[in-house]
Q: What sequence folds into this?
């Protein structure tokens, strides 16, 4: 049974940084692409960043390029999202997702429960 559990969310001031982690279990983590999504208040969930199964291929939403970094540690079955220069537009519930194959920006079959990130002074 696939399980994804996000952690690391919280309240941060504008300009601050935060690192999210997603612990995965129940599948062969190193064989699948992973991604981070976010859903701001009253908006649809959208892709933030995606990473291939070995970490060699990355994809970012334009709104986070240069500020966010996705990475993974296959030995720890964990995917990370380092977020810098945060602003109020980054306020959202952040979810990690498991791709259907070794890399995807569209096909995902499992998501975690999410972690809230609030950027406010």
A:
């Amino acid at each position: 049974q696939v399980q994804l559990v996000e952690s690391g969310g919280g309240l941060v001031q504008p300009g601050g940084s935060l690192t999210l982690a997603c612990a995965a279990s129940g599948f062969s983590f190193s064989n699948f692409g992973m991604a981070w999504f976010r859903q701001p208040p009253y908006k649809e969930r959208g892709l933030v960043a995606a990473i291939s199964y070995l970490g060699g291929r990355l994809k970012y939403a334009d709104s986070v390029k240069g500020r966010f970094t996705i990475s993974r540690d296959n030995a720890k079955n964990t995917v990370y999202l380092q977020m810098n220069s945060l602003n109020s537009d980054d306020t959202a519930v952040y979810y990690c997702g498991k791709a259907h194959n070794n890399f995807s920006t569209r096909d995902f079959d499992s998501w975690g429960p999410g972690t809230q990130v609030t950027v406010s002074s």
Notes: DSSP finds no helices and eleven strands in the chain. The mean pLDDT is 97.
